[in-house]
Specification:
- By secondary structure, the chain is α+β, with helices and mostly antiparallel strands.
- It contains eight helices and 21 strands.
- The strands form five sheets. Strands 2-3-6-5-4-7 form a six-stranded antiparallel beta barrel. It has a six-stranded mixed sheet with strand order 16-17-18-19-21-20. It has a four-stranded antiparallel sheet with strand order 8-9-15-14.
- It is elongated and about 90 Å long.
- Bound molecules: zinc ion (ZN).
- Zinc ion is lined by residues 104, 108, 188, 198, 200, 202.
């Protein structure tokens, strides 16, 4: 019977072994070469790159499977070496499969809970090796994300089976991607939490996922992208965060809940101190202009101050030096440089310094500014600008 369904994968008519036998990682397959190290196999045990889930890895005989994709209604495997037609043993990389299957099954639960409890529609999915994402059509706040995370973990601890049924009429399709005519509709059911048309690979029972964490939310136009991690990667992520928190507690000599207050206080303090430094630097500018190291190039005076002020005051100080000696002021520090000149070409001087130590920037004959790739001393600046 031909059924109509909104389908998430591009090739729903090709039935795959892992739909009904997700535990089969090794079996004999009939290989047909289609040239360029590419083959089709029967039965299909490698998941292709589709539905936001990455392709399986593995081997067919002695050839590594580099990529699996759907091409014009067929599932095509790209190998690292040619393979003649015949029967061979195919092996799926179990660790890689269990990882992507865990992330993908977690995504079913997250999407199912988000839909039933918060009317959030899933509009996009990406399963990655380090981190995966689900895109929702509406804004999601942290409280909602926390509830979804807890709900997902409850489904994991219930350890309920992830079932595959075919041609179920009572199915909710996840995406409104494209309408597909198909005589096979594969529906994945997770208890009362989710039932959706899907081509992907899944774990046998929700308990196999282990842990699910939602570490990030990102606003996307009208909706929200939720980042999630499942399984061993989620544990590794939580361990890394715990380690960072431990380090911060040690540095701040406080408990974890006290950290935001302590950090806020330290940032405010630092901001106020910077303001004070700025104010004091402003006060000592005339004295710095007067104490600049002055040399002569021909009959032109050049005054130099290095590492004396923040970049905020560099232009002002360079102009003050130029005014004080009726010549050229050069102010460098923190990788920045400003030149203000009444007698020499400021841009030429800057280019000369940049040629010697590297950097970017430019200007006119009167003022020039930019970055230097290396920190310079007063003596180095003198030597460079005195060179013919
Ligand atoms: Zn699925």
């Amino acid at each position: 019977m031909l059924s109509k369904a909104l389908f998430t994968c591009y090739n729903p008519v090709v039935e795959r072994l892992y739909w009904t036998n997700p535990d089969v990682y090794e079996t004999e397959v009939e290989v047909k070469s289609i040239g360029d190290f590419r083959v089709t196999i029967d039965p299909i045990i490698f998941h292709p790159d589709e539905g936001g889930q990455p392709p399986d890895k593995g081997t067919i005989d002695k050839a590594d499977v580099l990529n699996v994709e759907t091409v014009e209604g067929r599932i095509v495997h790209t190998l690292d070496k040619p393979l003649e037609n015949g029967r061979y043993i195919a092996r799926v990389d179990k660790k890689h499969r269990l990882h992507t299957a865990s992330q993908h099954t977690a995504q079913h639960i997250i999407s199912g809970i988000a839909q039933t409890q918060f009317a959030l529609k899933t509009v996009g999915v990406h399963i990655g090796f380090e981190r995966s994402t689900v895109d929702f059509d509406k804004k999601v706040d942290w409280e909602t994300a926390g509830t979804i995370e807890q709900g997902t973990m409850e489904v994991v601890t219930e350890n309920i089976p992830v079932e595959t049924v075919f041609n179920d009429t009572d199915v909710r399709s996840r995406f409104d991607l494209a309408e597909v005519d198909s005589d096979i509709i594969r529906v994945v059911k997770i208890g009362r939490y989710d039932a959706s048309a899907c081509c992907g690979t899944h774990v046998r029972r929700t308990g196999d996922i282990g842990i699910v964490r939602i570490p990030d939310l990102e606003s996307k136009k009208e909706g929200t992208r939720i980042s999630f991690i499942a399984g061993r990667k989620a544990l590794e992520f939580s361990q890394a965060e715990t380690s960072t928190l431990r380090e911060l507690r040690k540095m701040s000599k406080c408990s974890t809940p006290e950290l935001p207050v302590i950090l806020r206080k330290a940032l405010d303090q630092s901001k106020n101190l910077n303001k004070e430094v700025d104010r004091l630097q402003g006060l000592i500018l005339p004295s710095l202009a007067g104490s600049a190291k002055v040399i002569e190039i021909g009959s032109s005076k050049v005054g130099i101050q290095v590492n004396a002020v923040s970049s905020k005051y560099a232009a002002k100080l360079a102009a003050m030096i130029a005014n004080e000696i009726d010549g050229t002021g050069i102010v460098a520090g923190d990788g920045n440089i400003v030149i203000n000149s009444r007698n020499l070409n400021a841009n030429d001087l800057l280019k000369k310094l940049q040629k010697a130590v590297g950097g970017k920037g430019g200007g006119s004959s009167k003022t020039a500014s930019g970055k230097l790739d290396k920190t310079v001393t007063t003596e180095q600046v003198i030597r460079i600008i005195q060179e013919q």
